[in-house]
Design a protein that fits this description.
The protein is built from twelve helices and 18 strands. By secondary structure, it is α/β, with parallel strands linked by helices. The chain has two domains: 297 residues, Alpha-Beta Barrel (TIM Barrel); 80 residues, Sandwich (Immunoglobulin-like). The strands form four sheets. The protein has an eight-stranded parallel β-sheet with strand order 9-8-7-6-5-2-1-10. The radius of gyration is 21 Å and the shape is globular. It binds alpha-D-galactopyranose.
Length: 388
Protein backbone atom coordinates (compact mmCIF):
# COMPACT_ATOMS: atom_id res chain seq x y z
CA UNK A 1 0.00 0.00 0.00
CA UNK A 2 1.36 3.46 -0.85
CA UNK A 3 1.91 5.99 1.94
CA UNK A 4 -1.03 7.95 0.61
CA UNK A 5 -3.46 5.03 0.84
CA UNK A 6 -2.20 4.08 4.31
CA UNK A 7 -2.98 7.64 5.36
CA UNK A 8 -6.38 7.51 3.66
CA UNK A 9 -7.32 4.26 5.41
CA UNK A 10 -6.12 5.77 8.71
CA UNK A 11 -8.23 8.90 8.17
CA UNK A 12 -11.37 6.97 7.24
CA UNK A 13 -11.01 4.74 10.29
CA UNK A 14 -10.87 7.82 12.49
CA UNK A 15 -13.85 9.30 10.62
CA UNK A 16 -15.84 6.09 11.07
CA UNK A 17 -14.94 6.05 14.75
CA UNK A 18 -16.11 9.65 15.13
CA UNK A 19 -19.43 8.83 13.47
CA UNK A 20 -20.04 5.72 15.51
CA UNK A 21 -18.95 6.94 18.90
CA UNK A 22 -19.40 10.68 19.11
CA UNK A 23 -23.04 10.52 18.07
CA UNK A 24 -24.68 11.90 14.94
CA UNK A 25 -23.30 12.89 11.57
CA UNK A 26 -20.33 14.69 12.97
CA UNK A 27 -17.34 15.55 10.81
CA UNK A 28 -14.18 13.93 12.17
CA UNK A 29 -11.73 16.18 13.98
CA UNK A 30 -8.48 16.29 12.02
CA UNK A 31 -6.65 13.09 13.02
CA UNK A 32 -3.30 14.74 12.32
CA UNK A 33 -3.64 17.22 15.20
CA UNK A 34 -1.05 17.18 17.99
CA UNK A 35 0.72 14.01 16.87
CA UNK A 36 3.56 15.30 19.02
CA UNK A 37 3.00 17.49 22.09
CA UNK A 38 1.94 21.02 21.01
CA UNK A 39 4.70 23.65 21.15
CA UNK A 40 4.31 27.38 21.25
CA UNK A 41 3.71 30.26 23.63
CA UNK A 42 0.83 31.32 25.89
CA UNK A 43 0.24 34.79 27.31
CA UNK A 44 -0.91 33.85 30.82
CA UNK A 45 2.19 33.08 32.90
CA UNK A 46 3.88 36.40 32.16
CA UNK A 47 1.17 38.82 31.00
CA UNK A 48 -2.00 37.49 32.71
CA UNK A 49 -4.73 40.09 31.92
CA UNK A 50 -2.22 42.55 30.45
CA UNK A 51 -2.43 40.67 27.15
CA UNK A 52 -3.23 42.67 23.99
CA UNK A 53 -3.01 42.55 20.21
CA UNK A 54 0.43 44.21 20.45
CA UNK A 55 1.70 41.67 23.00
CA UNK A 56 0.57 38.77 20.81
CA UNK A 57 2.11 40.28 17.66
CA UNK A 58 5.37 40.84 19.53
CA UNK A 59 5.39 37.20 20.64
CA UNK A 60 4.76 36.05 17.06
CA UNK A 61 7.52 38.34 15.76
CA UNK A 62 9.94 36.94 18.34
CA UNK A 63 9.11 33.27 17.66
CA UNK A 64 9.43 33.76 13.91
CA UNK A 65 12.82 35.45 14.13
CA UNK A 66 14.70 34.14 17.19
CA UNK A 67 15.00 30.45 16.32
CA UNK A 68 11.97 29.26 18.29
CA UNK A 69 9.91 28.57 15.18
CA UNK A 70 12.74 26.49 13.73
CA UNK A 71 12.90 24.63 17.05
CA UNK A 72 9.20 23.71 16.66
CA UNK A 73 7.29 26.43 18.56
CA UNK A 74 4.28 27.30 16.38
CA UNK A 75 1.22 28.06 18.52
CA UNK A 76 0.81 31.65 19.71
CA UNK A 77 -1.93 31.36 22.30
CA UNK A 78 -4.05 34.11 23.81
CA UNK A 79 -5.18 33.07 27.30
CA UNK A 80 -7.88 34.73 29.42
CA UNK A 81 -8.98 38.40 29.17
CA UNK A 82 -9.45 38.91 25.42
CA UNK A 83 -13.26 38.69 25.51
CA UNK A 84 -15.68 41.59 25.03
CA UNK A 85 -19.47 41.54 24.84
CA UNK A 86 -21.71 39.41 22.68
CA UNK A 87 -23.53 41.27 19.90
CA UNK A 88 -27.33 41.34 19.64
CA UNK A 89 -27.29 37.87 18.00
CA UNK A 90 -25.10 36.48 20.74
CA UNK A 91 -21.89 36.37 18.71
CA UNK A 92 -18.81 36.88 20.90
CA UNK A 93 -16.64 39.93 20.19
CA UNK A 94 -13.15 40.66 21.41
CA UNK A 95 -12.61 43.59 23.80
CA UNK A 96 -10.87 46.87 22.93
CA UNK A 97 -7.41 45.34 23.44
CA UNK A 98 -8.03 43.16 20.37
CA UNK A 99 -9.45 45.50 17.72
CA UNK A 100 -9.51 42.91 14.93
CA UNK A 101 -9.08 39.23 15.78
CA UNK A 102 -9.24 38.09 12.14
CA UNK A 103 -6.46 40.52 11.20
CA UNK A 104 -4.42 39.24 14.15
CA UNK A 105 -4.89 35.64 13.01
CA UNK A 106 -3.88 36.63 9.46
CA UNK A 107 -0.76 38.29 10.84
CA UNK A 108 0.21 35.25 12.94
CA UNK A 109 -0.47 32.95 9.97
CA UNK A 110 1.65 35.15 7.70
CA UNK A 111 4.60 34.28 9.94
CA UNK A 112 3.95 30.55 9.45
CA UNK A 113 2.53 30.33 13.00
CA UNK A 114 -0.89 29.44 14.46
CA UNK A 115 -3.19 31.36 16.76
CA UNK A 116 -4.77 29.99 19.92
CA UNK A 117 -7.61 31.33 22.04
CA UNK A 118 -9.24 30.62 25.42
CA UNK A 119 -12.74 30.17 26.83
CA UNK A 120 -14.74 28.32 29.49
CA UNK A 121 -17.64 25.84 29.44
CA UNK A 122 -19.12 28.04 32.18
CA UNK A 123 -20.81 31.46 31.94
CA UNK A 124 -17.55 33.19 32.94
CA UNK A 125 -13.83 32.54 32.60
CA UNK A 126 -11.56 32.40 35.64
CA UNK A 127 -10.83 36.13 35.24
CA UNK A 128 -14.61 36.78 34.99
CA UNK A 129 -14.80 37.43 31.27
CA UNK A 130 -17.55 36.02 29.05
CA UNK A 131 -17.54 32.19 28.84
CA UNK A 132 -19.11 29.89 26.23
CA UNK A 133 -22.00 28.48 28.30
CA UNK A 134 -25.04 28.11 26.02
CA UNK A 135 -23.07 29.69 23.14
CA UNK A 136 -20.79 26.74 22.29
CA UNK A 137 -21.76 26.41 18.61
CA UNK A 138 -21.67 30.17 18.03
CA UNK A 139 -18.27 30.47 19.67
CA UNK A 140 -16.78 27.56 17.74
CA UNK A 141 -18.06 29.14 14.51
CA UNK A 142 -16.62 32.51 15.44
CA UNK A 143 -13.22 30.94 16.23
CA UNK A 144 -13.24 29.12 12.88
CA UNK A 145 -14.20 32.36 11.11
CA UNK A 146 -11.39 34.28 12.78
CA UNK A 147 -8.88 31.55 11.83
CA UNK A 148 -8.20 30.18 15.30
CA UNK A 149 -6.11 26.98 15.48
CA UNK A 150 -6.14 26.06 19.19
CA UNK A 151 -8.66 26.37 22.03
CA UNK A 152 -7.90 26.13 25.75
CA UNK A 153 -11.22 25.46 27.48
CA UNK A 154 -11.01 26.26 31.18
CA UNK A 155 -13.57 24.90 33.70
CA UNK A 156 -13.66 27.98 36.01
CA UNK A 157 -17.30 28.98 36.65
CA UNK A 158 -18.65 25.83 34.98
CA UNK A 159 -18.85 24.35 38.49
CA UNK A 160 -21.74 26.79 39.09
CA UNK A 161 -23.85 25.33 36.26
CA UNK A 162 -22.70 21.71 35.90
CA UNK A 163 -22.33 18.86 38.35
CA UNK A 164 -18.96 17.06 38.31
CA UNK A 165 -20.68 14.11 36.59
CA UNK A 166 -21.62 16.42 33.70
CA UNK A 167 -18.06 17.53 33.04
CA UNK A 168 -17.37 15.03 30.26
CA UNK A 169 -20.52 16.02 28.39
CA UNK A 170 -19.67 19.72 28.77
CA UNK A 171 -16.24 19.13 27.22
CA UNK A 172 -17.62 16.90 24.48
CA UNK A 173 -20.16 19.57 23.60
CA UNK A 174 -17.44 22.04 22.64
CA UNK A 175 -15.46 19.33 20.85
CA UNK A 176 -18.50 18.57 18.71
CA UNK A 177 -19.07 22.27 18.06
CA UNK A 178 -15.46 22.66 16.93
CA UNK A 179 -15.73 19.64 14.65
CA UNK A 180 -18.92 21.04 13.11
CA UNK A 181 -17.29 24.43 12.59
CA UNK A 182 -14.98 22.58 10.24
CA UNK A 183 -11.57 24.06 11.07
CA UNK A 184 -8.86 21.86 12.62
CA UNK A 185 -8.51 23.28 16.14
CA UNK A 186 -6.29 21.70 18.79
CA UNK A 187 -8.53 21.15 21.82
CA UNK A 188 -6.93 21.74 25.23
CA UNK A 189 -8.93 20.74 28.31
CA UNK A 190 -8.15 22.78 31.42
CA UNK A 191 -9.82 21.54 34.56
CA UNK A 192 -6.82 21.01 36.81
CA UNK A 193 -6.95 17.18 36.76
CA UNK A 194 -10.46 16.97 38.25
CA UNK A 195 -12.44 13.75 37.80
CA UNK A 196 -9.29 11.87 36.68
CA UNK A 197 -9.49 13.59 33.29
CA UNK A 198 -6.63 11.45 31.92
CA UNK A 199 -9.07 8.51 31.87
CA UNK A 200 -11.58 10.23 29.55
CA UNK A 201 -9.94 13.34 28.05
CA UNK A 202 -9.19 11.62 24.73
CA UNK A 203 -12.68 10.13 24.44
CA UNK A 204 -14.31 13.59 24.50
CA UNK A 205 -11.91 14.80 21.81
CA UNK A 206 -9.21 16.42 23.95
CA UNK A 207 -5.76 16.67 22.40
CA UNK A 208 -4.35 17.56 25.82
CA UNK A 209 -5.67 17.98 29.33
CA UNK A 210 -4.27 19.67 32.39
CA UNK A 211 -3.39 17.15 35.08
CA UNK A 212 -2.79 19.64 37.91
CA UNK A 213 -3.61 23.03 39.39
CA UNK A 214 -1.71 26.10 38.22
CA UNK A 215 2.06 26.20 38.00
CA UNK A 216 3.99 29.19 39.35
CA UNK A 217 7.53 30.45 38.78
CA UNK A 218 8.87 28.75 41.93
CA UNK A 219 11.01 25.63 42.15
CA UNK A 220 8.83 24.11 44.87
CA UNK A 221 5.62 24.42 42.87
CA UNK A 222 7.13 23.43 39.51
CA UNK A 223 8.90 20.40 40.97
CA UNK A 224 5.88 19.13 42.92
CA UNK A 225 3.78 19.33 39.74
CA UNK A 226 6.41 17.76 37.48
CA UNK A 227 7.64 14.93 39.68
CA UNK A 228 4.04 14.05 40.62
CA UNK A 229 3.24 13.05 37.02
CA UNK A 230 4.66 9.56 37.48
CA UNK A 231 2.00 6.93 36.75
CA UNK A 232 0.05 8.97 34.19
CA UNK A 233 2.28 7.86 31.30
CA UNK A 234 -0.13 5.20 30.07
CA UNK A 235 -2.76 7.82 29.20
CA UNK A 236 -0.56 9.87 26.84
CA UNK A 237 0.24 9.26 23.19
CA UNK A 238 0.13 10.84 19.73
CA UNK A 239 -2.90 13.17 19.54
CA UNK A 240 -3.68 13.07 23.28
CA UNK A 241 -1.30 14.33 25.95
CA UNK A 242 -1.14 14.91 29.68
CA UNK A 243 -0.50 18.61 30.36
CA UNK A 244 1.32 19.51 33.59
CA UNK A 245 0.82 23.23 32.70
CA UNK A 246 2.82 25.79 30.79
CA UNK A 247 6.50 26.65 31.09
CA UNK A 248 7.87 29.24 33.49
CA UNK A 249 11.37 29.18 31.94
CA UNK A 250 12.70 32.75 31.79
CA UNK A 251 10.17 34.35 34.13
CA UNK A 252 12.97 35.05 36.58
CA UNK A 253 12.20 33.39 39.91
CA UNK A 254 14.09 30.12 39.38
CA UNK A 255 17.82 29.52 39.02
CA UNK A 256 19.46 28.33 35.81
CA UNK A 257 19.65 24.76 37.18
CA UNK A 258 16.02 24.87 38.27
CA UNK A 259 14.92 25.94 34.77
CA UNK A 260 17.04 23.12 33.30
CA UNK A 261 15.18 20.72 35.62
CA UNK A 262 11.83 22.23 34.51
CA UNK A 263 12.60 21.88 30.79
CA UNK A 264 14.24 18.45 31.06
CA UNK A 265 11.37 17.04 33.09
CA UNK A 266 8.70 18.46 30.78
CA UNK A 267 10.52 16.92 27.78
CA UNK A 268 10.78 13.51 29.48
CA UNK A 269 7.05 13.81 30.27
CA UNK A 270 6.22 14.48 26.60
CA UNK A 271 4.46 17.57 27.96
CA UNK A 272 3.16 20.36 25.75
CA UNK A 273 5.91 23.00 25.56
CA UNK A 274 4.17 26.36 25.83
CA UNK A 275 6.68 29.03 26.73
CA UNK A 276 5.18 31.42 29.29
CA UNK A 277 7.73 34.22 29.35
CA UNK A 278 8.06 37.58 27.58
CA UNK A 279 9.65 36.45 24.32
CA UNK A 280 10.46 39.99 23.24
CA UNK A 281 12.74 40.54 26.25
CA UNK A 282 14.48 37.24 26.84
CA UNK A 283 18.06 36.49 27.87
CA UNK A 284 20.26 34.34 25.60
CA UNK A 285 20.29 31.75 28.42
CA UNK A 286 16.48 31.48 28.42
CA UNK A 287 16.39 31.17 24.62
CA UNK A 288 19.08 28.47 24.76
CA UNK A 289 17.06 26.49 27.32
CA UNK A 290 13.88 26.71 25.24
CA UNK A 291 15.52 25.86 21.92
CA UNK A 292 18.17 23.20 22.61
CA UNK A 293 17.41 20.92 19.66
CA UNK A 294 18.48 17.67 21.32
CA UNK A 295 16.40 18.35 24.42
CA UNK A 296 13.32 19.41 22.43
CA UNK A 297 13.75 16.26 20.31
CA UNK A 298 13.15 14.19 23.47
CA UNK A 299 9.77 15.90 23.92
CA UNK A 300 8.88 15.67 20.24
CA UNK A 301 10.06 12.11 19.71
CA UNK A 302 7.68 10.44 17.21
CA UNK A 303 7.22 7.34 19.37
CA UNK A 304 5.15 9.62 21.62
CA UNK A 305 5.74 7.75 24.87
CA UNK A 306 5.60 9.72 28.13
CA UNK A 307 8.55 8.93 30.40
CA UNK A 308 8.37 7.73 33.99
CA UNK A 309 10.46 7.36 37.14
CA UNK A 310 12.68 4.27 37.18
CA UNK A 311 14.56 4.86 40.44
CA UNK A 312 14.36 7.05 43.53
CA UNK A 313 16.28 7.37 46.76
CA UNK A 314 15.28 10.35 48.92
CA UNK A 315 15.68 13.52 46.82
CA UNK A 316 17.48 11.74 43.97
CA UNK A 317 15.42 10.49 41.06
CA UNK A 318 16.11 8.85 37.70
CA UNK A 319 13.49 9.19 34.94
CA UNK A 320 13.50 7.50 31.54
CA UNK A 321 11.67 8.10 28.24
CA UNK A 322 12.02 5.48 25.49
CA UNK A 323 12.72 6.98 22.05
CA UNK A 324 11.80 5.93 18.52
CA UNK A 325 15.39 5.06 17.55
CA UNK A 326 15.73 2.60 20.44
CA UNK A 327 17.65 5.07 22.62
CA UNK A 328 16.54 6.13 26.10
CA UNK A 329 16.41 9.71 27.32
CA UNK A 330 17.44 9.62 30.97
CA UNK A 331 17.21 12.42 33.52
CA UNK A 332 19.29 12.25 36.69
CA UNK A 333 17.48 14.72 38.97
CA UNK A 334 18.75 16.12 42.25
CA UNK A 335 15.90 17.60 44.30
CA UNK A 336 18.21 17.94 47.28
CA UNK A 337 19.91 21.04 48.69
CA UNK A 338 23.51 19.96 47.91
CA UNK A 339 25.29 18.62 44.85
CA UNK A 340 25.30 14.82 44.68
CA UNK A 341 26.47 11.95 42.52
CA UNK A 342 23.53 10.12 40.93
CA UNK A 343 23.78 6.83 39.10
CA UNK A 344 21.54 5.20 36.51
CA UNK A 345 21.76 1.43 36.39
CA UNK A 346 21.28 0.31 32.82
CA UNK A 347 19.19 -2.64 34.05
CA UNK A 348 16.62 -0.05 35.28
CA UNK A 349 16.25 1.38 31.75
CA UNK A 350 16.18 -1.89 29.85
CA UNK A 351 19.69 -1.55 28.45
CA UNK A 352 22.01 -4.53 28.74
CA UNK A 353 25.82 -4.50 28.64
CA UNK A 354 27.59 -1.38 27.50
CA UNK A 355 26.01 1.65 25.90
CA UNK A 356 27.02 5.03 24.57
CA UNK A 357 26.02 8.05 26.61
CA UNK A 358 25.48 11.55 25.23
CA UNK A 359 24.94 14.71 27.30
CA UNK A 360 21.94 16.41 25.66
CA UNK A 361 22.29 19.89 27.19
CA UNK A 362 26.00 19.97 26.26
CA UNK A 363 25.39 18.10 22.95
CA UNK A 364 28.49 16.08 23.74
CA UNK A 365 29.31 12.36 23.55
CA UNK A 366 30.56 11.14 26.91
CA UNK A 367 31.77 7.71 25.72
CA UNK A 368 30.78 4.12 26.26
CA UNK A 369 29.80 2.86 29.71
CA UNK A 370 29.32 -0.66 31.11
CA UNK A 371 26.25 -1.39 33.25
CA UNK A 372 25.69 2.11 34.61
CA UNK A 373 26.47 5.80 34.28
CA UNK A 374 27.05 8.24 37.15
CA UNK A 375 27.24 12.02 37.15
CA UNK A 376 27.65 14.85 39.58
CA UNK A 377 24.33 16.74 39.65
CA UNK A 378 24.00 20.25 41.14
CA UNK A 379 21.43 21.16 43.80
CA UNK A 380 17.93 21.37 42.22
CA UNK A 381 19.63 20.42 38.94
CA UNK A 382 19.66 17.71 36.32
CA UNK A 383 21.95 15.80 34.01
CA UNK A 384 20.01 14.79 30.89
CA UNK A 385 21.58 12.08 28.74
CA UNK A 386 20.68 9.79 25.91
CA UNK A 387 21.73 6.17 26.44
CA UNK A 388 21.89 3.93 23.40
C1 LIG B 1 -6.86 29.19 35.29
C2 LIG B 1 -5.93 28.34 34.41
C3 LIG B 1 -4.71 29.19 34.05
C4 LIG B 1 -5.15 30.45 33.33
C5 LIG B 1 -6.13 31.21 34.19
C6 LIG B 1 -6.75 32.39 33.43
O1 LIG B 1 -6.28 29.46 36.52
O2 LIG B 1 -5.53 27.18 35.06
O3 LIG B 1 -3.82 28.44 33.22
O4 LIG B 1 -5.74 30.10 32.11
O5 LIG B 1 -7.20 30.39 34.63
O6 LIG B 1 -7.71 33.08 34.19
Amino acid sequence: MSNKSVRWVGHSLVAALALCCLGGALPAQDPGLALTPPMGWNSWNHFACKVSDAVVRAAADAIASNGMKDAGYVYVNIDDCWQGQRDSSGVIQANEKFPNMKALADYVHSKGLRLGIYSSPGPQTCAKYEGSYRHEAQDAEQYAKWGIDYLKYDWCSASRVYKPAEMQAAYKKMHDALARAGRPIVYSLCQYGLESVWQWGASVGGNLWRTTGDISDRYDRMSVIGFDQNGLEKYAGPGHWNDPDMLEVGNGKMSHDEYLTHMSLWCILAAPLLAGNDLSAMTPDTLAILTNSEVVAVDQDPKGVQGHRVWQEGPYEVWMKPLADGGKAVGLFNRGEDAATIKVNFSDIEVSGSASVRDLWAKKDLGSFEGSYSAQVPRHGVVLVKVK
